[in-house]
Amino acid sequence: MSETVLPELPQELWRAGKLELAHGVQQFLQVMRVASAGLGRYLAEVESRGAKDLFGYGSTAAWFADVAGLSRGEASPIVNRAIALNPTRALDGAEVPAVAPVTAAVAAEGLVGGERIQQILEILARIPADTSAEDRESAEKILGDLARNAGPRQLVDAEAKILGWLDPDGNEPKDPEPKQPRREVTLERRKDGFWKLTGLLDDETGARTAAALEAYAKPRPVDEFGQADLRMKCERLGDAWAELLDLAIACPDQPGTSGYRTLVHVTIGLEELKSGIGKACLDFVGTMTAREARMAACDCLMLPVVMNAAGEPLDVGRLRRFVTPGQRRALNIRDRGCAFPGCHRRPKNCHAHHIEHWADGGPTDLRNLVLLCSFHHRLIHYGDWQVRMAADGLPEFIPPQYLDPLRRSRRNTLHRAPA
Q1: What is the model's pTM?
Q2: CA neighbours within 13 Å on the CB side: how many for 235?
Q3: DSSP secondary structure code for residue 194 in this structure
Q4: Strands 369-373 and 350-354
């Protein structure tokens, strides 16, 4: 084999004109392709003689991976391509013809690279097995000649025409047997108290999940104070998941919850629940702060559990529903959605919040209840905003002093026209 001569590289490449740059790229590209074709012939010869007999390796790919400093996954396609393009010999010495000799000849001229070669080999593999050798050779010649100047799109079009010519009737139809969709979900609690959710969904379920999450993961509108939603997309998707979970749990037909948003087992003393200092147990799967328990208890089923000093349950009270279905319907009609100023969330996405918490003696009636989405519900419990019932029986909100030094009351005007 003649020695490959590399094109001369200019000393000051930055001075080269656009034609010189293009010519240099074409030259080096051809050298690389010619060298790759020559390498393939060597690898095919090693395969013919046997890498085990020659070098003590179990396969040509394993030997080449070590020689080239590649992984087996990187070396195997190169060796397989070399075997497909070049004739080899079987154990008895009989010659095994190349799968794509015309493509190999084009590759030896440096006119086609590895990507197009691989595409041609994949097309040839899709030709029906009962195709005659003559027809298979004709198909490979068409593809090999076309590859001199064609791109991937032209080869795809040629594949359609070749398969239509060789197999006009297509594959024999099979009786449709719907497969069970593959769906996997894993949920595990980490040591830091967070839960890790992973899963694998089929295409349809994944698309439906993405559509549902995207619908609830849109950034919140800029409020009247000019504050934008600064959550990252992953955070907005996490909050959207929580909202969808709330909707599912609130469904009257939901097994195990019967439409109640939360079932809270209170395993702390009433004084701790009032003060917001201490720990509570949520459904016996982990702990939550008393402050979080107060927020969850706004719109829930409460099962009080009285504990003694040793942590033994002394009395389990009767299940109590704080906000009745009738009160919830009345709240939906009155507030028409989250009552917080500027919030667009609809009633189905809201919790019923006790303005004066029931643990502090607040009654569960309409004048002490207000609809809040999960974000603004948490803001009222944890932030400096306050909510109160105005003289006309509608809720109004008092902003923190750092937002409004005069702390003027505000209402949500998105759900109804201002008075």
Answers
A1: 0.41
A2: 7
A3: -
A4: antiparallel
Please choose, from the candidates 142, 113, 114, the residue with its C-alpha nearest in 3D space to the C-alpha of residue 127. Answer: 142
Region at 209 (left for phi over 0; alpha for psi -120 to 50; beta for the rest): alpha
Query: What tens digit of pLDDT does each residue of 117-129 get?
Result: 988 899 888 888 8
Token digits for 268? 């702390």
The predicted-structure confidence for 362-400, as pLDDT tens digits, reads as follows: 787 888 899 998 888 888 888 888 999 999 989 999 998
The 8-class DSSP code of residue 110 comes to T
Rounded average pLDDT over 36-55 = 91
Provide the residue type at 380 as one letter. Answer: I
Ordered DSSP codes for 47-78: HHH-HHHHHS-SSHHHHHHHHHT--HHHHHHH
C-beta separation of 182 from 174 below 8 A: no
Rounded to 10 deg, the angle between the 101-108 and 133-146 helix axes is 20
- DSSP 3-state of 343: coil
| Residue type at position 189 | R
Question: CB count, 10 Å around CB of 245?
Answer: 11
| Phi, psi for 120 (deg, rounded to 5) | -65, -45
